[in-house]
């Protein structure tokens, strides 16, 4: 082996060793501005955050394994595992300029821990089972899978409100609105509706009726929606921004 070849091999080994040992804190510049990684441990390629924070939401023991080939496309790609018993999460995440995407998501988050869309005094569990989702320029532009709100409770009403699911069928990315089908899983109300997302706006509409087991006070609340049809269902519609 020539001296030139030996020096080249030594340089390659040195660079490879250096890259493998890069500290985990170097991953933080790739994170969205609203996300912070506290107490990073391990290496850039296989590391962990003691606390991962996004707004009021805080997750403990978040681990990642990076996919090196994604750097060639100027993207950060990683398998994520959260061992926080309050919010177990598994997902594949890919971050790029101005957008990010997730796939193979299985997650449970307590609603009372800082999720902004939850009304004050409400609690329950947010469950995500997503094949994929993509966010561009801060807005959801594609999603396939199921989102569930489980065991909803309202402190102001002093009542259990049941569990519900929005199912987003597979669809190609487009500039049109995202549409999911809403239905009840269990609880005091029979719900059938549609959730439409367009940019930062949402529209939720459908019908609702009390089950036979519904508390009388909850059934009376539905009268605020107007008269029922022949099947005892009342129409509802909500819209706003998220």
Describe what you observe in this structure.
With 242 residues, the chain is mainly beta. It has helices spanning 3-20, 216-221, and strands at 35-42, 46-54, 57-66, 76-82, 89-96, 99-110, 122-136, 139-154, 159-168, 178-186, 189-198, 201-210, 234-241. 10% of the residues lie in helices and 55% in strands. The chain has one domain. The model is unreliable at 6-20 (pLDDT under 50). It is built from two helices and 13 strands.
Short note summarizing the structure:
The protein is mostly beta strands and 242 residues long. The protein is built from 2 helices and 13 strands. The protein is elongated, with a radius of gyration of 23 Å.
Q: Give the overall silhouette.
A: elongated
The overall average pLDDT, rounded, is 81
Give a quick account of the main beta sheet: strands, pairing sense, barrel closure: 13 strands, antiparallel
**Category from helices, strands and their pairing:** mainly beta
**Rg measurement, Å:** 23 Å
Beta-strand portion reads: over 45%
First and last CA, distance: 64 Å
**What's the number of extended β-strand segments?**
13
For the record, the count of structural domains works out to: 1
SS summary, helix count: 2
User: Can you list the strand order of the major beta sheet?
Assistant: 1-2-3-4-5-6-7-8-9-10-11-12-13
Order of helices and strands: HEEEEEEEEEEEEHE
Helix-residue proportion: under 10%
Uncertain runs: 6-20
């Amino acid at each position: 082996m020539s001296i030139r070849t030996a020096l080249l091999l030594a340089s390659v080994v040195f660079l490879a060793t250096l890259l493998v040992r890069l500290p985990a804190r170097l991953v933080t510049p790739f994170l969205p501005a609203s996300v912070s990684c506290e107490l990073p441990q391990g290496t850039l390629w296989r590391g962990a955050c003691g606390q991962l924070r996004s707004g009021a939401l805080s997750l403990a023991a978040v681990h990642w394994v990076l996919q090196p080939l994604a750097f060639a496309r100027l993207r950060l790609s990683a398998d994520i595992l959260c061992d926080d018993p309050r919010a177990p999460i598994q997902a594949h995440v890919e971050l790029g300029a101005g957008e990010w995407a997730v796939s193979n998501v299985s997650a449970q988050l307590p609603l009372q821990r800082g999720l902004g869309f939850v009304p004050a005094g409400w609690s329950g569990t947010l469950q995500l089972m997503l094949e994929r989702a993509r966010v561009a320029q801060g807005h959801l532009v594609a999603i396939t899978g199921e989102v569930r709100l489980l065991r909803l409770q309202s402190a102001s009403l002093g009542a259990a409100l049941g569990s519900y699911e929005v199912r987003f069928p597979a669809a190609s990315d487009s500039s049109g609105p995202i549409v999911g089908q809403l239905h009840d899983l269990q609880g005091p109300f029979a719900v059938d509706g549609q959730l439409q997302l367009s940019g930062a706006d949402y529209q939720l509409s459908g019908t609702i009726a009390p089950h036979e087991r519904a508390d009388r006070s909850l059934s009376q609340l539905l009268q605020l929606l107007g008269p029922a049809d022949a099947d005892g269902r009342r129409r509802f519609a909500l819209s706003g921004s998220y």
